[in-house]
User: Fold this.
Amino acid sequence: MNRVLRAAGAGLALALLATGCSSVEGTEGKEYIAGDSQVVEVAEVDREEPVEVAGTTVAGDDLDLVDLRGQVVVVNVWWSGCGPCRTEMPMLVEAEQSLSADHPGQVSFVGINIRDAAPENAAAFERDRGVDYPSLYDPGSKTLLGFGRYAPYAPPATLVLDTDGRVAALINGPIPSRSTLTTLVEELLPASAEAADG
Assistant:
């Protein structure tokens, strides 16, 4: 995949053009800044500890990513006023439906809404676009700290967690294509599951 940059080690510094829904003035000690739809894959030996992210969804339910261990988890950071977020949402819905059908019980999608003024606004946005997977409501962006050095700076951003709950891939900015996301997810599925699906 020619749009994929493979991280050679944990010390790799990535400075990518910032084009999210807010500008980024600096890296604040992090090893990269928000990117322009670039894809970073983290080699298995370089993945950090499993993320600890939990909170309340826009629907008012409790959600803890620990409960999704054993599945590949796609985490999309968004808000309803972000143009690129609005544009990519139909593709995310299609990808979630396709991957869930092709790999039942092996893939989950979770959103994190970080800017809507009220959860009702975020819920209405999701209803209008047919989003049926949960989104954490986090206008203070505190949950993003749980992603460590891979914490996104601005929406949209998408992280893919491996079955152990570790960040395995990151897309800063809009997802380049549905096939890009699907490939990232399927590469993380256990070999036995892929063989069974094939």
